[in-house]
Amino acid sequence: MIAIITAMDVELENILSRMEDVREVRRPGLFGYTGRLAGQEVIAAVCSVGKVCAAQCTQLLISEYHPEALLHSGIAGAVGAGLRHLDVVVARELTYRDMKEKTKREFLPFGGYFVADPKLTVALRKACPESHLGCIATGDLFVNDPEEKARLQRDYNALCAEMEGAAVAHVCTVNRVPFGVIRCISDLANDVAYDDMENFEQRAARKSADILCDAIGYLWGNEGQR
Questions:
Q1: pLDDT of residue 222
Q2: Contact assessment for residue 152 and residue 99, using Cβ atoms and an 8 Å cutoff
């Protein structure tokens, strides 16, 4: 079984539209759907926003469904130079942007950087050859400040900022579950980011989800047919 996590319903809609034999799963801390995607058994869940929600949902999926791999899809704010709306970022590694580096080095696994599974990363990039590969920075605050955006570029060489990815990656790393993360740019993490997100959120969520589904097809099923 493959596990899929999104933070919001809008990020899950396209994935559900491509699933077969869909059944709802609802229990404390877990809301999602089981079914088949590209011939593969999947569990697709909405975790809600933020690191705690993402970590809780990830652990529940791993503990209850024992997936062979986990994929995380969604939208993000552009941090890397030259990134534009609807560009795609595939995680090479993820880190927390709202923790001190000293704390991450001393208390978190592997210095606080969580490296995505190479096989899943290759599949995601095969599904979107024009995607950008690099670091994704996760924190609980929405980024709409040019100074914070510049800090994330400087300190982490991050390509984008979001609110769940590193928490998903952290739990997968501890449980030794291969993971991949893809994000599509909905805003430029600047002073109009909220307005941009409203305008681009649906298209960005749809694009990210389609690429994730195609990657599953490349790895486990039919060759990424929409």
A1: 57
A2: no
Helix (H) or strand (E) holding 55: helix 51-65
Residue 39 gets which letter from DSSP?
T
For the chain, the distance separating the N- and C-terminal CA atoms, rounded to the nearest angstrom, is 21
Structure tokens at 150: 């510049």
Q: From CA 171, how far away is CA 157, in angstroms rounded?
A: 23
What pLDDT sits at residue 226? Answer: 39
- Answer for the pair 207, 184: CB distance below 8 angstroms, yes or no: yes
* Tokens read off for 15: 């994935």
Radius of gyration from C-alpha coordinates of the chain:
16
Which domains are present in the chain? 2-220 (3.40.50.1580)
Cα distance between residue 6 and residue 40, in whole Å:
18
Neighbours of 25 (CB within 10 A): 15
Reported as a single tens digit per residue, the pLDDT across 29-79 is: 899 999 999 999 999 999 999 999 999 999 999 999 999 999 999 999 999
Give tens-digit pLDDT for 93-141: 999 999 988 898 888 887 889 999 999 999 999 999 999 999 999 999 9
Q: In which residue are the tokens 């999926």 written? A: 61
Q: Which residues lie across from 181 on neighbouring strands?
A: 72
What residue type is assigned to position 113 of the chain? Y
